[in-house]
Amino acid sequence: MNRLFRIGAPHVVPDGTQVAPFLNASDNTSGLPFGLLDGFSLAAGTIPAHSQSKIHLMPFVVQVTFVRRGTLHVRMKAQADTAPHALVVGADEAVLTEAGAFVQLSNDTDAPCELLYIVSPAYVFEQCDGEIRYDDSLVLDENWDDLASNHWRARHAMPTLEQRRQALLRLAAADAALRPL
């Protein structure tokens, strides 16, 4: 498929930030044929001025967050870390978040922070009639102190590989039903 891809209108995702999936064939809101790309996905994001995401983790994917414009404050704790650490990421810099790491993105400035999210393997997101059926992220209501006091275990169940597999099967079936033979 040879075509031009443009960043579309973003929508608010469960962690509270704005994301526009524009090169993700495993997200049924992107409009791409299912399976076009499975090794990675690309989305644009915006963290509005003086705002932050909820803490979240992605158990099955690695994410590179590239700052296009602005300054991003990242707080994360990988499984091997004993405590969270913070990074400040400027324009034309990137941070890697390992699968299973807790992460929170903040913008403490007066201007929006514009990002690219490069995820491998491709981020899986399934929405049906406005309801999220599957999301590769587990978005938490806990804060950092809550997580530390609970020995870094989330209160809610993590997505499973089987749930992810089932979502991929549903996405493939829905896409096949839309495409002519």
Explain what you see:
There is one protein chain. This protein is mainly beta and 181 residues long. The protein has a single domain, classed as Sandwich (Jelly Rolls). Helix content is 13%, strand content 37%. The strands form 3 sheets. A 6-stranded antiparallel beta sheet has the order 1-2-3-11-6-9, with no helix packed on it. Strands 4, 5, 7, 8, 10 and 14 form a 6-stranded antiparallel beta sheet that branches. β1 (11-12) and β2 form a beta hairpin. The two termini are 17 Å apart. The mean pLDDT is 91.
Q: Provide the domain count.
A: 1
Helix fraction by DSSP (H/I, runs of at least 4): 10-25%
Q: Bin the strand percentage.
A: 35-45%
CATH topology (level 3) name: Jelly Rolls
User: N- to C-terminal separation?
Assistant: 17 Å
Task: Report the C-alpha radius of gyration, rounded.
Answer: 16 Å
How would you characterize the largest beta sheet? 6 strands, antiparallel
- Mean model confidence by pLDDT: 91
Corresponding CATH superfamily:
Jelly Rolls
Briefly say what this structure is.
The chain has helices at 144-149, 161-178, and strands at 11-12, 18-23, 41-47, 51-52, 56-57, 62-69, 72-77, 85-89, 94-97, 102-107, 113-120, 125-128, 131-135, 138-139. It has 181 residues and is mainly beta.
Key words describing this protein structure:
single chain, 181 residues, mainly beta, Jelly Rolls, six-stranded antiparallel sheet
Describe the protein's topology.
Elements: E1 11-12, E2 18-23, E3 41-47, E4 51-52, E5 56-57, E6 62-69, E7 72-77, E8 85-89, E9 94-97, E10 102-107, E11 113-120, E12 125-128, E13 131-135, E14 138-139, H1 144-149, H2 161-178
Antiparallel strand pairs: 1-2, 2-3, 3-11, 4-10, 5-10, 5-14, 6-9, 6-11, 7-8, 7-10, 12-13
